[in-house]
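Give me structure tokens for this 434-residue protein.
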Amino acid sequence: MKNQEKLAVVICNYNKGKSTVDCIASVLASNLDSSVKIFVVDNASDDDSETVITGAYREQITFTRSDVDLGSCGGLNLGIQQALQEGYTYICCLGEEITVDPDALKVMLDYMASTPSAGLAGGKVYHKHMPHYIQQFGISVDFKHCRASMLYADTPDSELIPNIVYCDAISSCCMMVRADAIRRVGLLPTENFLYWDDTEWGYCIKQAGFEVVALGAAHLYHAANPMHRCDNTKVNYYMTRNCMNFFMKYTKTEACNKMSIVLLRSVFEAFYLHRMGQAHNMAQSDVAALLDAVGGVRGQAANDRILPNDDNGLGFVSFFQEQESVYMEDDDPFLEQVIRQINPDIMFMQLPAPAAVTIVRCDSILSIRDFNFSLDFSENVVYIDKNYRMLATREDLDLIKNYEPSLQLFLYAMQPMVFRRVAEMRGIQNCPLS
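Here you go.
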């Protein structure tokens, strides 16, 4: 590695001091040809994170504390700016719950150094508690369906998965960026505050002509549990608001009509599912995120936008905690692992049994259209969709029957607001309706 090709690692901590210590330890154990400088930014933690981190690695890191919550993007930007000022050629951002394989940083750094067109690189991130399953391997932006997808998420690793994935963005839990790319497009978009900042950054870096790539030989492990339940509605609010903002900002003008329908359908679906689950705070969060997106509200949300999380799905966790046995119509190893995490004593039957819950998988419980099927829900037949939402009662079925007409009224009321916001963002008089 040439002297001028220096590597800095930036870790943003928020109330996860022990996890950050583990992350630092894995970086220091990396097989690099030269030393690496670690910048740790504490983003206004209200626990003992500073004591834990500096007590373990005071002499081996540059520690900065922000007394104001800057959001994940703002915290990372603080460290990135320090690294740029000190002349680092490559900067690797890591989430505090990430641990890196000894060769991971070297794999990414060697690729970046040998590939001048590469602006952003990531690795293959595994679930730490299920290390044979990939959590994510690059991000793909889908303008047709107005979503960003974590590639290969929740799939078992295999030789069939490519070694290199050319993608649109890399998750901020581990992304190595070329300093020249930052100078071209700027820092992470702080107006997002939380979520979608990495997706937007990667998209802008790619649009600027740089290559965005995920490298299968760089192995990383993420400790976050996929069934973790946030205490408040911030994930729901920021994910919804910032997703809408991204597609209103970057979708081609001639495609805005379709984009508006797709986005509004997505928000209404979330709202309707939360209503079905009696998660009234989450339903309010859906509406607040929508109104703030079309109203141009950015940055940190107002206090009344973030409420206690009352979303229990449709009882997914509590439901399986109470079951003794289940039968799955279709094999789904990841779902089986998730259920076993919830209830280690549950039995998986090879054939249907009267005492066992029968699980039927579907893409979305709201997409079920055959209302005349003869399933008897009293015998514990449940539908589970890809987001772990369940159709388990006759009351659920009645709500699903009313979904489509309710959606059409919602689109009629809200679509003009989306058009007005797009026109404002782009400085045009009107956004075309088709």
